């Protein structure tokens, strides 16, 4: 678990559940906070990188989605924040945590710096947003009731769909490849524009492409990452490309549609250079680690110099 708590409420038990598969449903329980006001929470689920087991050691972050029976309002947000502060204050462990909040993102941030940095993001949403038809009357009533930002709440529901898709499609070997690409995403500026969701889709597509074989492919992590570099190096992102469809949306959505022309060119050049490094048995340069002692006489390095798109952050 990211934080130890007391199992005294429906909310804390959802956030506090032991690390494992996310809970689909939890018992709906009304909880009186102030006088006759009620905060009705339908369920809590872990979403994002935490249930995917793809968290990097250098960036430990967890996201908890709190589902309300009705559309969450600013008043509910403030009550939930107050309740969380009280629960942590009553904790016997005496955890030293810091709270922050962002109304626009419908998010509460719980941070701990010792013994290592950990951040938990609690986001509020409701399935009512997905089911109702948006009209002027709806927007007007939401504004009068001070309902939280609709886009932020819908993004939480989208992240839930992506998490369920990930659990049904990704294997352990693919998670290893994803972690390598996420590390590359943080070290190499050319790869930083790619979102985690786009990396997940690309890894899954590259690993499950059958080609002319009638049998399901069995690729090792090294083969999958090579296929990822080959995909980008082939000019997949350049003009007139088919794009990358989002399988979790009803309408056609290009997951990579936000990339600029320069970012597409930088990614293509960076992937071409990385592919040459793999051919010359210099994968350690891509991973950003020291040269293994076993490589006493490595093959001749590529003649082309390292492009700007593949230089690591903070290095010239």
Structure overview:
It is built from eleven helices and six strands. With 316 residues, it is an alpha+beta fold. The radius of gyration is 23 Å and the shape is globular. Strand 4 (98-102) and strand 5 form a beta hairpin. The two termini are 40 Å apart.
Topology:
Blueprint: H1 10-16, E1 29-32, E2 38-47, H2 49-52, E3 61-68, H3 74-90, E4 98-102, E5 107-112, E6 118-125, H4 128-131, H5 136-145, H6 150-169, H7 172-187, H8 196-208, H9 221-233, H10 261-279, H11 283-287
Parallel strand pairs: 3-6
Antiparallel strand pairs: 1-2, 2-3, 4-5, 5-6
Helix pairs in contact: 7-8, 7-9, 8-9, 9-10
Summarize the structure.
It is built from eleven helices and six strands.
Key traits:
six-stranded mixed beta sheet, single chain, 6 strands, alpha+beta, 316 residues, disordered N terminus, globular
What's the SSE pattern? Answer: HEEHEHEEEHHHHHHHH
Strand coverage percent: 5-15%
Question: What class, by secondary structure content?
Answer: alpha+beta
The level of helicity is 40-55%
The coarse overall form would be: globular
Radius of gyration: 23 Å
The stretches of 5 or more residues where confidence is low (pLDDT under 50) are: 1-37, 212-216
